[in-house]
Amino acid sequence: MRFAPNPNGPPTIGSARGIIINGEYVKMYKGKYIIRFDDTDPKTKRPMLEAYDWYLEDIEWLGYKPDEVIYASKRIPKYYEYARKLVEMGKAYVCFCEREKFKEIKAAGLECEHRNAAIEDNVENWEKMLEGKFREGEAVLRIKTDMKHPDPAIRDWVAFRIIYTSHPLVGDAYFVYPTLDFESAIEDKLCGTTHILRGKDLMDSEKKQRYIYEYFGWEYPVTKHWGRVKIYEFGKLSTSGLKRDIQAGKFEGWDDPRVPTVRALRRRGFDPEAIRKFFISLGLGENEVAVSMNNLYAENRKIIDPKANRYFFMWEPVEIKIEGLPEEKRVELPLNPNREDKRVLKGESRVLITREDFEKFRGEMIRLKGFCNIKLDKVAEFIEFEIGNVKKGKIIHWLPASEVKKCKIIGEVNMDGFCEANVVRDLGNVVQFERFAFCRIEKMVDDYVKAIYTHP
RNA sequence: GCUCCGGUGGUGUAGCCCGGUCAAACAUACGGGCCUUUCGAGCCCGCGCCCCGGGUUCAAAUCCCGGCCGGAGCACCA
Questions:
Q1: Cβ atoms within 10 Å of A281's Cβ, excluding its own
Q2: For the packed helices A180-190 and A203-216, what is the interaxial angle rounded to 10 degrees?
Q3: A284 SS3 class
Q4: What is the C-alpha separation between A150 and A79, in angstroms, rounded?
Q5: Which of the listed residues A131, A143, A178, A356 has the most CB atoms within 10 Å of its CB?
Q6: Do residue A206 and residue A264 come from a single domain?
Q7: Cα A77–A99–A39 angle (5° rounding)?
Q8: What are the start-end ranges of the E strands in A97-217?
Q9: What is the CATH number of the domain that holds A349?
C-alpha cells in the first residue's frame, strides 16, 4: 500500500483520510506502507521544502510508521529508462504539436503527424529532449493509447514535459519531468504496490496507466476510489486555496487553529485516535460526503473527557460582593469528576461571575459551585455554605476576584476573559472550561494564559 | 456535451456481491428526561431512512430494465 502526496503544503484533513485508510489496511493485512512524494512538478504544483518533513511528522503523529519513504524527484533517471523502453517499443513518441493544436486533433479523434514517426527518430528526439535541445513547451513525450478512445482524456496522454524551473528538492538536476500518471505507474510497479486506495479524482489515471502496464505485461494493482470529503465547517478542502488565504493574511499560518490541516488539529488538542476513528467511520464510499466536524468532536470528546481537568473560565465577567460572608473558605473542587484529586479556589467575598448568569439570576438564590449559596445582586447576600435546597440549574461557576489569570482564547471561538490560576499546571494539555468548552492551554504569554479553542 | 462512478433516517456509515433471519443496525445531530454541584459535559429515553417506476420471484434495500438526482474526470496539475 502507499500514500502518495504532493508536498505542496502540509497534510490537510483530506490527506489524513488517505494516510489513515491506507495505514489501517496495512495494519489489518500486515502489509508494507510506502510514503511516496509525488513531487514531479516544480512549477504548477510546486512542492514546499518544509512540507516533506511535515508529512512525515504528521503521519507519525497519526500513528503510522512508513516502511519506506520515496521521493519521486530523486528517482527521475529510473523513469527515463522506462520511457526509453516504451519509445523503443514504439509505444511512446515525441510530439511537437502545440498544446491547442493537439487538443483539436485529439478531439477529432485523429492522429497527429508525430505519432507515426519512425522509432529511430523518436529515440533520437527523446535523447535530444533529455539533452536540452528543446524549449519548454516545444516537445512532450506521449504514450500511445487509442485516438478513438471514447474518453478524449485518455487519448495519447503526456508522460514527460519540459520544465526549466528549479526544483525545491533536487534543484536544476532535471528539466524533463514525468507527469503524475507516468511516474506513479512506474513507481507502483517498482515498489510492488498491490492495492491502491485513493480519491475519486484519480479514477481516470488508472485508465491511462493500464496502457503502460499492458505494454510491459505487468499486472495492475487492485484499486478503490473514495469520494471527496466536504467538511461542513470548512467547505471543500484545497491546499492551494488555503495557501492563498494564508498569504493574504487571513490566517496566521499553516497551524492557525481555524485551518483544516493536521497540524492545526494537533495544536487544538485533538487526539490522533479520534481522527483515526473519525475517518475509519467515514469508510470508503464513492459518493461525495459532507460531514460535520461534530462527528470528529464527538470522537475526540470520548477520549479527552475522562482525562481533561476542569477549570473555571469567565467570559464577560461581572464582579459582585458577598455581604455577610462569615469567613474565607478554602474551596476544593475535583479536577475531574472521575478522580479524587482536587484543585483549590479561595472563597472570598469579592467574586467574578459571567454577565450572562448575573442578568439571568439577579435577585434569585443561586449557588457558587463548591462555595456557598447567595442571593445574587451587585452586592449579594450570603445565605449558607451548605448546598441546601438550591434548585438544579442554579449552580454557577465563579472566580475569586483576587486570584485570577487573564486568559485569551483563540480559534473557532475568540474570547478574552479570566481563568483560575490553577490552569498553569496543565500547560500544553486540553482542559475543560466548565460550562464553556474544551480548550488546550498552549502557553503563558507575559501575564496571560493563551488557550486554543478545541471544541464544545 | 463526452467518459466513468454513486443514490439507506437531518448528517455519516453497516447491510447489497451470496434475495428471506431487515416492518432495517450504529454513530452524530435534534427533542425530552436524569445528575446533593458543569442547564455547552455525562447518563437515559425518543424522533427519524431503503430516490422513483416497472420487471423477475412464494419472497427484493438486496437481482434486471428504464427514469430522475448527485459526484468525479475530460491539463505539458497532483
A1: 11
A2: 60
A3: coil
A4: 28
A5: A178
A6: yes
A7: 35
A8: 140-143, 158-162, 176-178, 195-199
A9: 2.40.240.10
CATH of the domain at A203: 3.40.50.620
Place of cell 491511462: A208
**B17 C1' to A294 CA distance, Å:** 33
CATH number for position A94: 3.90.800.10
* Nucleotide B39 C1' to residue A354 CA (A): 15
Give the CA A215 to C1' B5 distance in Å.
27
Cα–Cα dist A287/A143, whole Å = 31
User: What is the span of the domain harbouring residue A102?
Assistant: 76-178
Q: pLDDT truncated to tens, each residue of chain A (456 aa)?
A: 999 999 999 999 989 999 999 999 999 889 999 999 999 999 999 999 999 999 999 999 999 999 999 999 999 999 999 999 999 999 999 999 999 999 999 988 889 999 999 999 999 999 999 999 999 999 999 999 999 888 888 999 999 999 999 999 999 999 999 999 999 999 999 999 999 999 988 988 999 999 999 999 999 998 889 988 888 888 666 788 888 889 999 999 999 999 999 999 999 999 999 999 999 988 888 888 888 888 899 999 988 988 899 999 998 899 999 998 999 989 988 888 878 888 999 999 999 999 888 888 888 888 898 899 999 989 999 988 888 777 767 888 999 998 899 999 999 888 899 999 999 889 999 999 998 889 999 999 888 999 999 998
Is the same domain home to A124 and A223?
no
Tell me which residues from 102 to 161 on chain A have a beta carbon below 7 angstroms from nucleic acid strand B: 102-103, 136-138, 140, 150-153, 158, 161
For residue A217, give the C-alpha cell.
Answer: 505485461
A394 CB contact with strand B at below 7 Å:
yes
Determine, yes or no, domain membership for A434: yes
Determine whether the distance from the CB of A281 to the nearest atom of strand B is below 7 Å.
yes
